[in-house]
Amino acid sequence: MSEQLRLTGMTWNHSRAYPPLVAAAQRFEEENPGVAIDWERRSLDDFGHAPLAPMARAYDLLVIDHPMLGDASGQGILLPLDDLLPQPLLADLETNSVGPSFGSYRYDGRLWALPLDAAAPVASYRPDLLDRAGLCVPRNWDEVLSVAQEGLAVMPAFPADLYLNFLGLYHSLGGMPQAGPEAVLDRGTGVESLLRLHALAALMPERIYALNPILVYESLARTDEFAYCPFAYSYSNYARPGFAAHPVLFTDLADIRPRTPMNSALGGTGLALSAQCRHREAALRFAAYVTGETCQRTLYVQTGGQPAHRQAWLDGAANALTHNFFSQTLTAMKRSFVRPRHPGYVAFQQRAGHPIVEFLRAGGNPEAAVDELNRLYLDCGRSTAAPR
User: Fold this and answer.
1) Is 273 exposed, middle or buried (0-12, 13-18, 19+ CB in 10 A)?
2) Which of 34, 75, 111, 208 is 20 to 30 A from 191, comparing alpha carbons?
3) Three-state SS for 83?
4) 198 with 313, same domain?
5) Residue 229: which CATH number?
6) Which of 372, 387, 379 lies closest to 345, judged by CA?
7) Which of 371, 378, 379 has its CA nearest to residue 355?
8) How many CB atoms lie within 10 A of CB 369?
């Protein structure tokens, strides 16, 4: 009997992330006797901000966020996948990318991960509570504020999430996210974005500053306190019958200006291979399997995953399983934009929400808050810059 090959993987801790990888690994093992894959999980905050280098030393397969590529590619800790996987597979994944998911894992001319999971901030609501209050799903910013004035709106305002809310508003109002370590936010657009956030946050309870998207959806699904969230990274699990006490439905973002729907920052995850991967061929086969159309459209979505393959988002069974989550949010996904990926950006994203929280809570000079964001941005880029 041949010796079993064992791979280890690290993902993040939620029903959207961990169970579908465990299920895919189990099926892969059944179809590939002699290969075993063990998955572990870490917190959502660690997934978004903790350095990849320690993970790459400890695990073969890594579920990553695309802004990490600027730091990771220069450290030589991930395997570039361009020349290691069949070109027809890569062409299919690129053609069927949900929004810019595939391209978000290209950096410095190389492909560092395969799109595994696709998400972006979208709107969500409890139809029963809106009906009870005699309200419709907001279609524009004024209607968003109207629902908030009724005390029925909530948003994630944990600092890192609050910055991404701000970035979505900033981009939607005509500002361009920083493309490099020396770029800065336009002050006028930044101020308008902060003032809009301030007006919205003032109508919400103080505890929003402790809420990430998962906690927002848990509140929407478990209690009758809130009926609407204007923007938070999407989780199709909460639309599934039986997942929570009350299904949460998802829809496109409201218009930020007449006939101008809001854009949001691409989220989701990619599957990368550590440069120290012990069994490269088996790891590549699993990566191709779990990101391919068949698994993504069937086993992956059926076990709680939120696929990155467009055919899964168009699939009737996947939509029936999720109260049409995929068909209702695909347009928003197509409008999403890729966050900066240069060295130092992740450190900035982790800190950037704090001056926004301070401004929303205490008021003051919004221009000074934008200036502080720019100072943090430049400092993070300079402090982590390294010869390339």
Assistant:
1) buried
2) 208
3) coil
4) no
5) 3.40.190.10
6) 379
7) 371
8) 21
Q: What are phi and psi of 257, to 5 degrees?
A: -140, 165
Looking at residue 38, what DSSP letter applies? E
Quote the pTM value: 0.94
Tokens of 276: 């120290």
Q: Is 105 inside any structural domain?
A: yes
What confidence tens digit (pLDDT) does each residue in 124-149 have?
999 999 999 999 999 999 999 999 99
Count of the separate structural domains present in the chain = 2
Do both 246 and 135 map to the same domain?
Answer: yes
CA max distance for the chain? 71
Work out the average pLDDT over 157-163.
96
Q: Is residue 59 part of a domain?
A: yes
Asked whether the beta carbons of 261 and 329 are under 8 A apart, the reply is: no
Query: Tell me, what amino acid is at 245?
Result: A
User: Is 334 within a domain?
Assistant: no
Is 335 within a domain?
A: no
Distance in angstroms (rounded) separating the CA atoms of residues 232 and 156:
7
Check the CA dihedral 27-33-36-37 and report its sign: negative
- End-to-end, the C-alpha distance of the chain in Å comes to 47
Cβ neighbours for 126, distance < 8 A, ≥ 6 positions apart: 220, 224, 226, 227, 228, 246, 248, 249
pLDDT of 218 > 70? The answer is yes
DSSP conformation class of 3: P
